[in-house]
Design goal:
Helix content: 25-40%
Structural class: alpha/beta
Number of strands: 12
Region (Disordered): 53-95, 115-139
Protein name: YeaH/YhbH family protein
Number of helices: 15
Biased composition (Acidic residues): 81-95
Order of helices and strands: HHEEHEEHHHHHHEEEHEEHHEHEHEH
CATH topology of the domain at 255-430: Rossmann fold
Pfam family, one: DUF444
Strand order of the largest sheet: 9-8-7-10-11-12
CATH architecture of the domain at 255-430: 3-Layer(aba) Sandwich
Largest sheet: 6 strands, mixed
Strand content: 15-25%
CATH superfamily of the domain at 255-430: von Willebrand factor, type A domain
Radius of gyration: 43 Å
Biased composition (Gly residues): 56-66
Length: 436
């Protein structure tokens, strides 16, 4: 095995050692875009290097060599060591395994022991397929020239016959054009009566009566096969007719299309500190990737709320923090409005994911949020409580939702107190997905 083979082998080992997917979700840098870059645990490649401390062989020195018992001074810096204590300013090199959402969804299924397929409605969509349908009218650019040529060629071949053979037939003693035509029809010779009449009239006198009978003519004259005649003479022209013209147009293909819209809701009130926001991002981002990989069309809506709610772009969603109070129902009211106006239940699979620290204004969960969750038709409602401390006196929203709606097949409640809980929370949500 050569050095190049060794290098390729080490690279393959490096790819196999990319970060475990669950570990990446829990602790990795998820980024802010749609690209999924899973870090690869670098494998150092073997290389030759000279020992910088090698100063010669045994018994050699440069003078001034310490005698036994002399104090030893501080080690001298070696070339390439850099200035001690000075931090580097250049970025290090990192290797990543780039993964598309489809692959991510497949591997997450395997990682978490899931076996999920897109559920819910299939919207029938029409689109143009291959140019397989034909019509009798259309633009010249759509004319099916190949079919026109084939139809003309078939007609040409069907009309072809050995003219010289028929003239030999007309040379039989006492034969008439009528008798010759009947003979041609019974022997599948595609000659017209008009052609026989013309050929008989123009037959030279010295050819008339050459054969005493048709039997004698057949014994001495053999019709030339069509294929041989074409090879010898070629095809002079092909008779095209207007009824042979056909124009191509694309067939309309009806395909079932799985469409999904995901409403992501996040509490941005003053109690949502950075550690809580990070847990929301660490949970919601893989869910977005997963559903993008599972569905043909996936759209995402991001709603931030404190005491009121507003729609934001994804880039803002995970970073916003306000100083206001909390009223979770405001986000569900806005979600219901967006879904009704833009994503009808008859055409879209719908997911409503909300996250926060479970702190909500008095009675809002019981009186408003739970009725709205019951009213909004969706494949799945999920609430993720992010409490790094594990609990808080006023953090009751998740428990109330679970107590009232936890028995439903399309409601999931998950608790995340640290990165180690993220994978379990994602499993809890995805394994609760309703078949509706």
């Amino acid at each position: 095995m050569g050095l190049r083979d060794d290098l390729e082998r080490y690279r393959e080992v490096g790819e196999q050692r990319r970060q475990d997917l669950a570990e990446f979700i829990q602790y990795g840098d998820l980024g802010q875009g749609d690209d999924i870059h899973v870090p690869v645990k670098i494998v150092s490649l073997p290389e030759f290097a000279y020992d910088q401390l090698d100063q010669g062989g045994v018994g050699q020195g440069n003078g001034g060599t310490p005698e036994p018992g002399d104090p030893v001074g501080q080690p001298q810096p070696q070339p390439g060591d850099g200035d001690e204590g000075e931090p580097g300013e250049e970025e290090g090199e990192h290797e990543y395994y780039e993964m598309d959402p489809e692959e991510f969804a497949q591997e997450l299924d395997e990682e978490l022991g899931l076996d999920l397929e897109p559920k819910g409605k299939k919207v029938e969509t029409e689109e143009e397929g291959a140019l397989t349908d034909r019509t009798r009218t259309g633009p010249d650019s759509a004319l099916d020239v190949e079919r026109l040529f084939k139809q003309g060629l078939k007609r040409k071949l069907a009309m072809e016959f050995d003219e010289e053979y028929v003239r030999e037939l007309l040379s039989v003693e006492g034969i008439s054009p009528e008798t010759a035509f009947e003979y041609a029809r019974s022997n599948n010779v595609p000659v017209s009566k008009a052609w026989i009449d013309d050929a008989f009239a123009s037959l030279p006198d010295d050819r008339r009566g050459r054969w005493a009978s048709i039997e004698e003519m057949e014994a001495n004259v053999e019709a030339e096969p069509l294929s041989q005649r074409i090879r010898r003479e070629g095809i002079g022209h092909i008779p095209f007719r207007r009824e042979d013209e056909r124009y191509r147009y694309p067939e309309v293909v009806t395909k079932p299309q799985h469409n999904v819209v995901v409403i992501n809701i996040r509490d941005v009130s003053g109690s949502m500190r950075e550690d809580k926001r990070e847990l929301v991002e660490r949970t919601f981002t893989p869910l977005d990737w997963y559903l993008t990989g599972k569905y043909d069309t996936a759209e995402f809506v991001y709603i931030a709320h404190d005491a009121s709610a507003w729609e934001v772009e994804r880039e803002e969603f995970f970073g916003i923090r306000s100083g206001g109070g909390t009223k979770i129902s405001s986000a569900y009211e806005l979600a219901a409005e967006i879904l009704d106006e833009q994503y009808p239940w008859s055409e879209w699979n719908r997911y409503v994911f909300a996250a926060g620290d479970s702190e909500n204004s008095s009675n809002d969960t019981e009186e408003s949020v739970i009725p709205l969750m019951e009213e909004i038709e969706a494949n799945l409602h999920a609430y993720v409580e992010t409490q790094p401390s594990g609990s808080a006196i006023n953090a009751t929203h998740a428990e109330e939702v679970e107590r009232r709606l936890g028995g439903r097949e399309n409601v999931a409640v998950a608790y995340v107190s640290g990165p180690d809980d993220v994978a379990n929370a994602i499993y809890e949500i995805l394994s609760t997905e309703d078949d509706a």
